[in-house]
Amino acid sequence: MAVAPATEVSEATPEEECEPPFPPAYPLAPGYEVLAHISRGDALDVYDVWSYERFCSCIAKVIRPDRRGVERVRTRLLREGELALRMSHPHLVRAYAVFREPDPVVILETFPGLTLEDYIEMAPRRLPIVDLAYLGLHLCSAMHYLHGTGYLHLDLKPANVIEQQGIAKVIDLSLAAPPGPTTRGRGTREYLAPEQVRGETVTTATDVWGIGTTLYEAASGDAPFAPLNSQEEAAVQDHRYLQLERPAVPLRRWRRTLPAEFRTVVEACLDPEPARRPSLRELAAVLKALTRDPLRPVLDRGSDERVTAPAAAPIAG
């Protein structure tokens, strides 16, 4: 099934035509000085900055020079920063400050670890099952907390998970929104749940899909809906979404030694029908059993969605 691309069109200037990033020592915001430019995306620049108040390095997100007049970019960055300021959870990125004028600047804690995407690309071996289980528990914990604030993440993927000393931390709240109707195709193509592709109602089950795609890729080395052949590559070029056309390849095909319980629950997270996906509690219960740690409290029996995985649970069990 073909779905037209999202209506929001990038207005970014080609990289070679955009103003260069700010140089080292540039005063980006009161009390924050540029150390280095890290990356430039379609709408934002990311910097390593020095905080004179905290006497440490931090991350700063600012709008690209050529996008400063785009109101929706400004609104989205401010919303991300203000939401992150309200968050206090060991598996979610922390924000330290938000500056609104003259141009928005969001100051975040620094990320010294690798992204899960980097780890998957660089590691000589796939994560063992206990590490996969802890990774999933950390993601369940973060999503339970975020959902309790009335928001969904809506962009869970390996590039948005940082590993810091055995702890998984979810970053990038730029697409976070309350449950309800969503913009068609908003997010990262390969990781979108079917309801996101179609612009239908998003719920907590949408983030369960995101956990499923992340665990699938961490276990197998490949995203569940990455093109498998030239025909699928052509379909993607034609703006078609593979998650609407086929199920994910069974994990057993990629890695026969994975426990059946893990394969089954991850594949259930990728059910095209949101109502058939496991709840966070159901997912966490399966993952907890795979950690082989019967004393670790994970579930609050008072709610089907309440997950209380402890912050100190290491990924590398």
3D architecture notes:
The strands form three sheets. The chain has a six-stranded antiparallel sheet, covered by helices on one side. Strands 7-8 form a two-stranded antiparallel ribbon. It has 317 residues and is α+β, with helices and mostly antiparallel strands. The chain is globular. The protein starts with 26 loop residues before the first strand and ends in a 27-residue tail after the last helix. A hairpin with a 4-residue loop joins strand 3 and strand 4 (56-63). Helices cover 31% and strands 15% of the residues. The model is unreliable at 1-11 and 295-317 (pLDDT under 50). One of its GO terms (molecular function) is ATP binding. Residues 298-307 have a biased composition (Basic and acidic residues).
Compact overview of the structure:
This protein has helices spanning about 70-85, 115-120, 130-150, 195-200, 205-220, 230-235, 250-255, 260-270, 280-290; strands spanning about 25-30, 30-40, 45-50, 55-65, 95-100, 105-110, 160-165, 165-170, 180, 200. The chain is about 30% helix and about 15% strand.
* Shape call: globular
Quote the average pLDDT. 86
How many helices in DSSP terms? 9
Give the tally of β-strands: 10
Keywords: ATP-binding, Kinase, Nucleotide-binding, Serine/threonine-protein kinase, Transferase
Domain Protein kinase: 32-299
Protein name: non-specific serine/threonine protein kinase
InterPro entries: Kinase-like_dom_sf, Prot_kinase_dom
